[in-house]
Amino acid sequence: MAQIAEDLFLLLLDNASAQPNLERHRRARVLSAAVLLDLAYACRIRPAVAGESVEPGRLIALATTPAVPDPVAEPAFALLRRRPLRPATALKRLSRHIEDDVSGYLEHAGQIRRIRLGPKESAWPLTNRERVGHARSALLAALFDRNPPTPATAAIVTLLHAVDGLGALLSLNDRGWRWVHARAAEIASGSWVDEYPAALPEVNLAVTASAVRHALG
Questions:
Q1: Residue 58 belongs to what domain range?
Q2: Which terminus of the chain, N or C, has fewer Cβ atoms within 10 Å?
Q3: Cβ–Cβ < 8 Å for 6, 72
Q4: What is the pLDDT of residues 130-159, one digit of tens each?
Q5: Which residues pair with 85 in a beta bridge?
Q6: Using CA atoms, how far apart are residues 167 and 161, in angstroms rounded to an integer?
Q7: Direct distance between the N- and C-terminal alpha carbons of the chain, in angstroms, rounded to an integer
Q8: Residue 120, domain CATH
Q9: Domains contained in the chain, number
């Protein structure tokens, strides 16, 4: 399951209009980044490092096979299996269809339903608020209570901070924003790995998030 990308999309929908609060271009890029981080957390991709035959920083696919193929993440993995790509290039290529892939899977899973509002515009009312409620609670606890974020929460905060997108989820006064931006920057720096019982998947997620975050910025 592409938890990071799916939770991010559901969080962006959690408003009265049943439409994402983030404008289309940033939304496509941040969802593409989220799918890449889902693959990183599953240890299926990573950035190349100095000394390898691939240019450092390019994303490379690893020889791993998931127990259950993920229909949301598989196109991104297939793209990187063809050849390693710079994060910015991968984001550009994935962004063309990513929203349809994520929303289509969530609709199939019964989390949302689609209402077409026009040729290029849709609304996605939530059919079950339990999952998005857990995701929102985890995000608020990490930002405001300084709870150690789960890997998925850390990834979502990192990506939204990179595109100045936290305002799509939160409405705060100046003092609140100062607090949130400071805490989000802390999480985006990768320090969350020190707050969490980290193993290889968490470390790989943090390293890949750093590369993807710079491409987003």
A1: 3-216
A2: C
A3: yes
A4: 999 999 999 999 999 999 999 999 999 999
A5: 59
A6: 9
A7: 26
A8: 1.10.3630.10
A9: 1
